[in-house]
Design brief:
TIM Barrel
Amino acid sequence: MQLKKAAAIAACMLMILVFVKMNGDIASFFATVKAGDAVQAIGQPIYSEEEKRELYQAIVAEAETKAVAPIDARLDRVWYAIPGYNGLSIDIDKTYEAALKAPRNSPIPYQYKEIAPKIQLSQLGPQPIYRGNPDKPMISLMINVAWGNEYIDPILQTLQDKGVKATFFLDGSWLKKNVDVAKKIQEAGHELSNHAYSHPDMKNLSRTEQYNQIGKTEQLLKDLLQVDNKWFAPPSGSYNSATVQIARDQGLGTVLWTIDTVDWRKPPADAVIRKISSKLEPGSLILMHPTATTRDALAGMIDSAFAKGYSIGTVSETLSSDRVMPRVEGAHVF
C-alpha cells in the first residue's frame, strides 16, 4: 500500500514538473510575440528603427534619380497640335509600405505614379491633330468607313486575333443604313467616331453645312449606338479653320493622319506593309479603309508595329497624355 502511494506521489510530481516546463515554454513564446518576433514567424520581416530609416532614405535617393518630367502639349509648325505626355515618379510612401512587407534581401518593389503636364491638348484651342506625342511608344489604326462592308468582318477578325483595338470613323449616311454592322464593330470593343454625314469636301461647305454634316452624324452615334464621341475625321482630309472650330463647338477634336496607306488605290498588301514599317514612329496615326488591301496588309502592319516595340491603342488612347508603362524592375536589394 505504501509503495502504491509513493508511486502516485512520484507520478504527480512528474506531472507538475512537466506542467511547469510547458508553462515556461508558453511564457517564452508569448514573450517572443510581445517582442514582435511573431510577425517574422508568419513571413513578415522585422526591421529595426535604424534599418527603417536606411530603407526610406534608399527609396528617396532612388526617387530622385528615376523621376521623369512631364511633357507639355504644344503647337508645332508642321504637325499642329501635339499632345503632352505624363511624367513618372516613384511614390515614396507607397513604395516604403510595400518594401516593409516584402521578404528581406528582395528588390525594393517600387510603386510609381504619373505626373500630368501643366499644358494639356485641350488647352491648345481649335487645332487639327496629326499625331500623338513622339515620346509615347503607341500608335493607332484609323479606319474610315463609308463603303466596303464586305471587308469589315475579316478586318475585325484580324484585329481580334492580334488583340488590337482600332478607331472606326463612321460616315453618317453609311451608319444610318448599317446599324447592325456598326454594332458589331462596337461589340468587338473598338472606338467609334465621326466621319461627317455624306463624305463631303468640308472646306467648300458653308459654316451651316459643315455644322450639319458633323452634327447629324454625331446625333446618330448618340441615338443609335449611345456613343460619347471625342473625335471628328474630315473626309479626304479636307478642312479649314472653320471646320476645326465647328467641330470644337460640338465637343470634338479634328483628327487627321500621320501615315496614309492610300489603300483605295489598291496597292499590293506587301507594299503597304513595307511603307508602314519604314515610316512608323511613336505617336503615328495610320489611315486606312475597309478595302481588300487593308484586309490583306493589316496583320503585317500590326506585326511591324509590335516588332518596333510599339503598343497599339485607339485614337483616344494614343492622343491621351497617359504613359505607356514599361516593365519596371526593382533597382535595389535591401
